[in-house]
Design a protein that fits this description.
With 419 residues, the protein is of the alpha+beta class. The protein has 8 helices and 23 strands. It has helices spanning 62-76, 158-173, 197-206, 249-261, 263-280, 320-327, 338-348, 399-416; strands spanning 13-18, 36-41, 44-49, 53-57, 78-81, 91-95, 105-109, 112-117, 120-127, 150-153, 179-189, 211-215, 218-222, 225-230, 233-244, 284-288, 294-297, 301-312, 335-336, 359-364, 369-373, 377-381, 384-393.
């Protein structure tokens, strides 16, 4: 099922100027409570608010419809970009449904975007009436902490989910597929509507090496960069294979060595890297795919990680969003073979993922952008926050170990909701 192709908005007027921004200031402090967006890592990135234009798409054509809408909208826009960095000028933020059905997705052009890249900071204003010069706003009012947070199982409790994992292992052993990623949810109910700026600030502070994001109610701190396209270069960080940290440095180093030698985790990781490399190869004139992964250390877990890089030969015609469409879903969030794995997810996972594990990020008028996979994430609706976590299941997977891994992956967002 698809919707009627979206039509471009009336002409947008966009202006980007340099601004003075305290190097120690957090971009998140500028965000008002109304319609904030964010994409930050190590203090740099983009935040924005308001909506000058947006498009909502669904179904299997959601990426193509959004790409067409964006291309036509950019072609009509009047842009005065006085900075000329990736992420300046006309910029949109998107979040896309994981599955083709329903595939509900949104791409929004904020009225104001503030960005920082090293020593350079800028502000972009966009409107339908004409150029808005704008003045860098003062810090917004501080958000209140979530109150009266109570957690409960989502679609399945732990025992039910382990049964689903065991079913998947049986199917893999029978040769139906090689890998499937199964997710579960956890529901937090609060005493009052949640101001998403609170968990965003916590996530950015606690997980600076991740990309802290928020678009249209979906927020999180993802360690996995689906694709970055910047001036003809494309990169993707692939994560698959996880072990929980203990907090003891010596013990964690030993666990990291165990992870790096684990046949189960190396097998899972190989599937994920292969799927990304195969998807990018048709668009690249050259590629670098490391032979072995490295271990990425995060505060709560460690992952096997591989950075895939390439030179895009069709950058003039293929945007970062179109690369996203080619990559999604990778084996890291779906499985191998992808069609079989995604069909199995729909059949046995027992919940609607919504936009969890779908692409989230931003794109500018040149088609450059950064898109992550919406992991370590949650969706906020009023007083309710729905948290997600997923695990890659292969032939050697143990249901109890996978349950423990999923619980570790809930930790970032769960802790971010604490007062």
């Amino acid at each position: 099922m698809t919707t009627t192709a979206p039509t471009p908005v009336s002409r947008l007027f966009t202006r980007t100027v340099r601004v003075d921004l305290d190097a120690g200031a957090s971009l998140l402090d500028l965000l008002p409570a109304d319609a904030p967006v964010s994409w930050l890592r190590r203090g740099d990135g983009l935040v924005g608010w308001g909506s000058a234009a947006e498009v909502r798409t669904r179904g299997a054509t959601r990426f193509a419809e959004t790409a067409k809408w964006w291309s036509e909208t950019c072609a009509q826009a009047e842009v005065d970009d006085r900075v000329g960095e990736p992420g300046t000028g006309l910029v949109g933020f998107g979040t896309f449904g994981f599955a083709d059905e329903p595939g509900d997705s949104v791409f929004v052009v904020p009225e104001v975007v503030v960005g920082r890249r090293g020593d350079v900071a800028w502000m972009t204003t966009t409107s339908r009436e004409g150029h808005v010069t704008g003045v860098l706003p003062d810090a917004a009012d501080a958000p209140a902490a979530p109150a009266g947070v109570v957690f409960a199982d989502g679609a399945l409790d732990g025992e039910q989910w382990m049964s689903v994992v065991a079913d998947a292992v049986t199917r893999i052993a029978a040769g139906e597929l090689e890998k499937v990623v199964l997710a579960r949810d956890l529901v937090a109910t609060c005493a009052a509507p949640v101001d998403v700026r609170w968990p965003l600030a916590r996530l950015a502070a606690d997980y600076p090496m991740c990309w802290t994001f928020h678009v249209d109610g979906l927020f999180g701190a993802t360690p996995e960069l689906l694709v970055r396209r910047e001036r003809g270069l494309v990169t993707s960080r692939v994560l698959a294979g996880t072990i929980r940290r203990t907090g003891d440095d010596g013990r964690d180093l030993a666990l990291a060595a165990t992870l790096a030698r684990s046949s189960k985790d190396l097998e899972e990781h190989e599937y994920a890297v292969r799927s990304v490399a195969d998807a990018l190869e048709p668009h690249c004139s050259s590629m670098n795919v490391p032979e072995a992964p490295f271990v990425l250390h995060l505060p709560n877990v460690m992952h096997l990680a591989t950075d895939v890089a390439g030179v895009v030969h069709d950058a003039a015609t293929v945007s970062s969003l179109e690369l996203v469409a080619a990559l999604h879903p990778s084996a890291a969030v779906g499985g191998t073979p992808t069609p079989v794995a995604t069909a199995l997810i729909a059949a046995i996972e027992g919940m609607d993922r919504g936009r969890y594990a779908g692409p989230v990020g931003w794109m500018d008028a040149d088609g450059d952008g950064e898109w992550g996979i919406a992991l370590r994430s949650a969706e906020v609706t009023g007083e309710t926050v729905r948290l997600f976590a997923g695990c890659g299941i292969v032939a050697d997977s143990d249901p109890e170990a996978e349950l423990a891994e999923s619980q570790a992956k809930f930790v970032p967002v769960r802790n971010s909701l604490e007062a």
